[in-house]
Every structure is written in structure tokens, then in C-alpha cells.
Amino acid sequence: MVEEAEIPTISMGNEPDRMARIKPPRALQVRFARGSMFGEPGNVNRQRRILLDALDALQTMTEPGQIRELPYQWERPDQS
Asked: Is the pLDDT score of 79 beyond 60?
């Protein structure tokens, strides 16, 4: 409904198989734990970068169903 109103949306996830089944209009894959789509708590610079990447993807991902993997990895040793 939102996409039909020409408002682009993007999903973020960490399981590419699940995203492929759900088929969001566009998606970003992250290599973070579930519930931490923007990375480590308190890592403001990384969170800002991921948000900017997501906004950029809204403009550059033109094919339906595209999934783009972000290059970031979890940096805190207590969670993978």
C-alpha cells in the first residue's frame, strides 16, 4: 500500500533466505544479530552510516526484490 502510493520502503534483515522468501521491494542485509540492524549499541558513527546507506539504497535500488549486503561486521566481542 505504501509503495503503491509511490513512497519507497526498505527492509533490513540478517537472514538472506528469509528476505528472499518475503520479497520486500528492496532490502539491506546486515551481518548483525537479530534486533540490532544498525549495529552495536552506542556506535553512533556506524549507526549513522547505516542509516545513510539505507537512504541511498532507496534512491539507487531500482529493481524489485533487490537485496544489497552492507559491508559492516559486528565489532563488540560479546556478540556475533
From this structure: no
Cell, residue 60: 539507487
Among 62, 70, 52, 59, smallest CA distance to 14 is for 70
Three-class SS string for 36-74? CCCCCCCCHHHHHHHHHHHHHHHHHCCCCCEEEEEEEEC
Question: Cα torsion at 1, 20, 31, 63 (round to 10°)?
Answer: -60
Q: Domain limits of the chain?
A: 9-73
Tens of pLDDT, residue by residue over 27-68, are: 999 999 888 999 999 999 999 999 999 999 999 998 888 999
